[in-house]
UniProtKB/TrEMBL annotation:
The keyword Protein biosynthesis does not apply. This is Organic solvent tolerance-like N-terminal domain-containing protein. GO terms for cellular component: cell outer membrane; outer membrane-bounded periplasmic space. GO terms for molecular function: glycolipid transfer activity. Gene3D superfamilies: Lipopolysaccharide (LPS) transport protein A like domain. Residues 1-17 form the signal peptide.
Length: 184
């Protein structure tokens, strides 16, 4: 299995809801594709704007439920989903005060993530803060930057290392690369 260096996709944008810090190669098809996601960064120095049709906070359960047309914006990155659940921990911490220690964030119902020229779509996803792992899943997970397109069913990104893996789930990973997109 070859490793390919891919241009960055700010998949970690889901963490914005928590208010915390924290694809060019040859055309080939394989059942599993591993690669480096260069430049994967989280930003804690820009304001976060979250919109949804409803917000329910269950302090006893340490959960915040954003439902209906969820939109999260920080800088040039936008996340949209039908629903987002934030799981947090810590005595005295709350999402509303911005001091929550986030454990995990789940998004579902047609997830769309865009950062500058990169986009990702999936049925659902999650970010595990303690493991620093982000996963997008669905019948068809699509990553694109310009004319370069990667299609699979599960994308796993290890945020600390930038290592990414695109799985096929019994089918084949599909890649379409535009030779004009390579830097000279």
């Amino acid at each position: 299995m070859k490793h390919r260096r891919l241009s960055p996709l700010m998949i970690a944008g889901l963490v914005f809801a928590a208010g915390c810090a924290t694809f060019a190669g040859s055309a080939a098809m394989a059942q599993t594709k591993s690669s480096q996601m260069a430049g994967m960064k989280l930003s804690n120095d820009q304001p976060i704007q979250i919109e949804s049709d409803a917000l329910e906070i269950r302090e006893q359960e340490k959960k915040a439920f954003f439902t209906g047309n969820v939109k999260v914006v920080q800088g040039t990155t936008t996340l949209q989903a039908g629903a987002m659940t934030v799981f947090y921990r810590g005595e005295g911490s709350t999402v509303t005060q911005g001091n929550a220690d986030i454990e995990k964030i789940d998004v579902s119902d047609k997830v769309f993530l865009q950062s500058e020229t990169q986009q990702a779509t999936a049925d659902k996803g999650f970010f595990d803060m303690s493991q620093q792992v982000f996963v997008l899943e669905g019948d068809k997970v699509v990553l694109s930057e310009g004319q370069n397109v990667f299609v699979g069913c599960k994308l796993t990104v290890h945020m600390e290392t930038g290592q990414a893996k695109l799985d096929s789930c019994g089918r084949r990973v599909q890649i379409q690369l535009d030779p004009k997109s390579q830097k000279k």
